[in-house]
Amino acid sequence: MPELPEVETLCRQLRQVILGRRLLSVEVLDERLGPPPAVAGLAVRQVVRRGKAVALLFHGGVAWKIHLRMTGRLLWETDYGLPVDHLRLICHFDGGRLLLIDPRRFATVDFDDEAGPSGPPDPFAAEDPAGLRREAARRRLPVKAFLLDQRLFPGIGNIYAGEILFAAAVDPRRPARDVTQEEWERIARAARAILREAVRARGTTVSDWRDLFGRPGEYQHRLKVYDRRGGPCPRCGGEIVREKVCGRGSYHCPRCQR
Ligand SMILES: [Zn+2]
């Protein structure tokens, strides 16, 4: 599932190719997406990320919100040759087309998004570990599950939550309310560094993530614990274990994550 760095990658790449372009027509190939919208002729004014969703803002005040969910992906084509499987939506722009491809059909497109131009706040950008600690003080759940709360940390998913806790040397199973101020500072710092680096690497491809131009990301080569069960910990050489935390597969080093 695309997380913050993957969706941010798509937003940046979309800005490169569709800003200012006019949408000529829309073909909805899967009725689950709803009827095609009446926006033909409008040009794209801006592309913004809202958590894990991509928002396309058109001139005239129209906004779409695309949520890729499990297996959705966007592909930009200027050269229409090969047939594409699992195609659900085609947006014909002046000079290229944007495809929504989605084998499991969970992706959604809200053709009438009214959330306004700004995205949800980025809790790590605020540099407010005291705020994180106050929020966590009321929560019994493991810190890993706390980081997966989309209302608090929009865009953080299972892979990056695990990598952030490894970098911060915090055990994912610890109750969120027991994490200290100093540890929250480490978590916030690790989150900013990892998410920034993952955006630069165009995301993590462990199964089907591809960027807007069909290329895999590169951050999977830099993962320290995800999918490394039994492997040596890059920090202490100990054995990385996999355990379920709130139903999600979770990787950590029991020796150096406390
Ligand atoms: Zn270790």
Task: Write up this protein.
22% of the residues lie in helices and 21% in strands. The protein has 258 residues and is an alpha+beta fold. It has two domains: 4-110, MutM-like, N-terminal (N-terminal domain of MutM-like DNA repair proteins), CATH 3.20.190; 129-252, Helicase, Ruva Protein, domain 3 (Orthogonal Bundle). A four-stranded antiparallel beta sheet has the order 1-6-7-5, covered by helices on one side. Strands 2-3-4-8 form a four-stranded antiparallel beta sheet, covered by helices on one side. A two-stranded antiparallel sheet has the order 9-10. Strand 2 (44-50) and strand 3 (53-58) form a beta hairpin. It binds zinc ion (ZN). Zinc ion binds next to loops.
- Return residue spans where pLDDT drops below 50 for at least 5 consecutive residues: none
Briefly note the CATH topology name of the largest domain: Helicase, Ruva Protein, domain 3
Secondary structure class reads alpha+beta
Please compute the radius of gyration using only Cα atoms: 20 Å
